[in-house]
Amino acid sequence: MSQRIMILATNGFEQSELEKPKSHLDEAGYDTVVVSPEDNEIRGFSDGEWGDPVKVDLSIDEVGEAEFDALLLPGGQINPDTLRMDERAIQLVRNFAKSGKPIAAICHAPWLLIEAGVVDGKTVTSWPSLRTDLKNAGGNVVDQEVAVDGNIITSRNPDDIPAFSRELIKALEEQLLREEQRIAVPA
User: CA–CA separation, 16 vs 25, rounded Å?
Assistant: First the structure.
């Protein structure tokens, strides 16, 4: 069975930060599922304009962390700012963090990590305007294309998507290997 990745987003996501990692994951054989508080479709934002719609696969009310192997949080200003006010979204982030499953957040999406209280003590990066927020939440903020600390993967902007996607796929491969090793060990 293919590993399932939840992509949690709402209207106003940065178009490239949802579509490109999703494409990288799909091409690598993962099952990506777009989850949103909205029904039917959500619309991205690109170059200061409303972008293309993306089909919503499942409502936020229909899912739980246990059904997925990782969480992908695209950025954009509007998307994470809206989601951080939605307790269902924040609880999903907390559940993924508690489970130890990979959480990949790019650009403004670390706002959700802050709201969920999972940044303290973690090395993270983000869009520059969030860095003070991350520091105030106890994060060790770095300015690099991708920061990986335990199950938390963060990147700064769309230019970092190749490294961001690569680290998420690496985390999924390592997670699968650990699971296979756990199953192979007789009880």
Answer: 14
107 catalytic per annotation? yes
Measure the CA–CA gap between 49 and 98, rounded to whole angstroms.
36
> Please, are residues 166 and 181 in contact by the beta-carbon 8 Å criterion?
no
* Rounded-to-integer distance, Cα 122 and Cα 171, Å: 16
Kindly report, residue by residue over 108-142, the tens digit of the pLDDT: 999 999 999 999 999 999 999 999 999 999 999 99
Residue from 90, 107, 130, 152 carrying the catalytic annotation = 107
What's the pLDDT score for residue 184? 75
**What is the pTM assigned to this prediction?**
0.95
Residue whose structure tokens are 């990288």: 24
Q: H or E stretch including 41? A: strand 41-46
Report d(CA 40, CA 58) in Å as an integer. Answer: 9
Q: What is residue 64's three-state secondary structure?
A: coil
Closest CA to 71 of 110, 117, 126: 110
